[in-house]
Amino acid sequence: EDAFFKKVTAAKTDFPVGVEALYEAAQKKFEKNPFGYIYSGASGEETLRNNRRAFERWAIVPRFLTDVSEVDTSVTLFDKTYATPILFAPVGMQKLAHEEAELATSRAAAKFGIPFIQSTVSSYSIESIREATTDSPKWFQLYWSTVDEELPKSMVQRAERAGYEAIVLTIDTVRIGWRETDLRNQFSPLKGGLGKANYVEDPVFQRSLRDDSEEALIDALVQHVHHPTLGWEQIEKLQSWTDLPIVLKGILHPEDAKEAVARGIDGIVVSNHGGRQLDGVIASLDALPAVAEAVAGRIPVLFDSGVRSGVDVVKALALGADAVCVGRPYIYALGIDGERGVTTWVEHLLEEVTASIALAGANSVKQVRKLTLVENK
Ligand code: FNR
């Protein structure tokens, strides 16, 4: 019996298979405004569309007649080996999708040893997620604060104490992108108080509140999240606060990547925030080859924005990524069926990754990186 076939055909009956079905099921399940917040991109969504188009433009030219009976999907990042080349991208305010939010998604990630990157604006705090998934790999995504730099410092220390293994500083969100769907819906999850968990549990944040009202809390939250002054000077401070690997998320230009390497940054994520920040920027996959070339293997290059399938994972690896983060799809799975939904979705993704690597004629991630890709005519 083919275990893969059995699994997929069995799963078909109770969980959507493939990105279209996943999206449709999520759309049915979610309320309009949260769904709008999750799926949409900034402005006219040019970048959101191009993130997908870029994947469709690249084609794998497979090799055959090599032994692909065993496929090793493991990758090594910061001296630690992970069973899969996948990470969960930081997605804030997951209560938008499901009451159990990050508790459910981090537990699902833990089952596969997938690093869970927790957002600063998550629905559950660093400490409660640590409690939910003690031994699994967790990284902390940091939004800087211009108002009080003691706050990011405090959050980094909390993440360190809780055993988080890396700090992912997001550099493309100095302010929020022009999100037209949310404007039309008059929807602002941050102003609605979602995403406050890490803040309200922080002594530095508490100290910055003018009074006990919900209004004061939201005002402070919105102020802290924006950080238009973020620059290399602040990154040096971050480096002095922690020995954890520091990863910059949102690199698109090869010169920024080179600068990061020169300044002792430990890793980068090539990302355009899933098309949610500046619209009209280069598709993340189009930015990847030049960035990977500039980095030249000196530090890990992670990738996100537009990954929807196992084939996409293979393409991103082949174009220079050391590992790949997924965003929206695991949130759709969360909304559809909580932890169980995310688990099933990951099972599908990993089966497809393994099958795609073998079908392309490779048997390890290292070999995937030597595959031939051409641009479709
Ligand atoms: C995000 N993303 C994000 N990134 C980040 O650094 N901190 C955050 O809090 C969030 N929050 C967030 C919320 C929602 C609803 C989405 C969809 C995305 C961006 C995320 O980490 C990642 O870059 C993109 O989601 C990747 O693109 P795909 O996989 O969604 O196409």
3D structure, described in words:
With 377 residues, this protein is an alpha/beta fold. The protein contains 17 helices and twelve strands. The chain has an eight-stranded parallel sheet with strand order 4-11-10-9-8-7-6-5. Helix 7 (150-161) links the parallel strand 6 (138-142) and strand 7. The longest helix has 33 residues, at 328-360. The chain is globular. Ligand FNR binds next to helix 3.
Outline of this structure?
With 377 residues, the chain is α/β, with parallel strands linked by helices. The protein is built from 17 helices and 12 strands. Strands 4-11-10-9-8-7-6-5 form an 8-stranded parallel beta sheet.
Write the layout of secondary structure elements.
Elements: H1 3-12, H2 19-29, H3 32-39, H4 46-57, E1 58-61, E2 75-77, E3 80-82, E4 86-88, H5 101-111, E5 116-118, H6 126-132, E6 138-142, H7 150-161, E7 167-170, H8 180-185, H9 197-200, H10 203-207, H11 214-225, H12 232-241, E8 246-251, H13 254-262, E9 267-270, H14 284-295, E10 301-303, H15 310-318, E11 323-326, H16 328-360, H17 365-368, E12 372-375
Parallel strand pairs: 4-11, 5-6, 6-7, 7-8, 8-9, 9-10, 10-11
Antiparallel strand pairs: 1-12, 2-3
Helix pairs in contact: 2-16, 5-16, 13-14, 15-16
The structure holds ligand FNR.
Residues 37-38, 51, 89-92, 119, 121, 141, 170, 249, 271, 273-274, 276, 304-307, 326-328 line the site of ligand FNR.
